[in-house]
Amino acid sequence: MGVTIDGSVGGGQILRSALSLAAITGDAVTVEDVRGDRPNPGLKHQHLACVDAAAEVCDADVDGAELGSETVVLDPGEPAGGTVAVDVGTAGAATLVFETVLPLGVVVDDPIELTVTGGTDVAWSPTVDYYRHVRLPLADRVGWRASVDVSRHGFYPRGGGEATLRVEPETTARVAFDARGAFEGARVEAVASRDLADADVAERLVDAAVDELDAENVDVTATNPRTVESPSTGASVLVALAYEHTVAGFSALGEPGKPAEDVGADAAADALAFVEQERTSPHAGGPRAPPVVDAYAADQLVLPLALAGGRVRPAAVTDHVRTNCAVAREFGYDVHVEDGVLVGE
After folding, report:
1. For this structure, is 320 an active site residue?
2. Residue 57: is its pLDDT beyond 90?
3. Is the model's pTM score more than 0.90?
4. What is the average pLDDT across 303-332?
């Protein structure tokens, strides 16, 4: 019979979740009015790469898989592991293509190896360091086993990065992100393109973030500044906060004319705001308990909530979270928001 999704109000997230859930459930899906509320609606390069990757993994019949298409129909076949490669063709985010395929480990018998050429550190998407040090550790806590290898970084505008996601066959454990547990330390990662090496940009990003964290007595247990090959000039920094039961991440991208010190301080400031919410919380587990995952991770946990149930206490319930929950409900899963907490039944 199939599922029809209104894709007009949630950008590419609606499309990605619809593709994943179609492959998992075996239900055909039609996404209408794709990105209809955007000034340039329809499929862009990154969205098309998501469609192509999902279709190949689940041997799907697809209509509307072309640039600018505002309606996409995917009728999945039998999902299978194996090697898949897609080229976004622009600096579109490789990590968002990963997001479409990562959940499909629950329906394959053999590993999936997906190589994406595109942007690894670009705006409006998780950086590849966030993906490796935040997204995948959170996935591991719900039973999803995956890893990412980066062959080349890609920044805006040329992209040209290359990264490979390996997804193991998996089942989903009940999701439990209700409490942070003990703080285990902060990790600061930074990358900068080779042409910024003489200016020590990667090191300055890390040093600035560490200075801000040290000033607030946040223990930094690991730092990793790197200079990388990339077709375009660029840089990014990640502050990851590890706790006994969770991890949260906060990234910032380099900008022309913006000192590296300011970029590093921006990422640290976001991390410190997350830390402060625990310090000022009257009691863990209560009605004003601190968030357990960052706002971006909340989006990424909707599908495991749908599949296995549980609870997630996010830093914010964004419009993306609400629309993602709505997509899951169209496929028959009960995922909703109660008093600022995401709940899967």
Report:
1. yes
2. yes
3. yes
4. 96
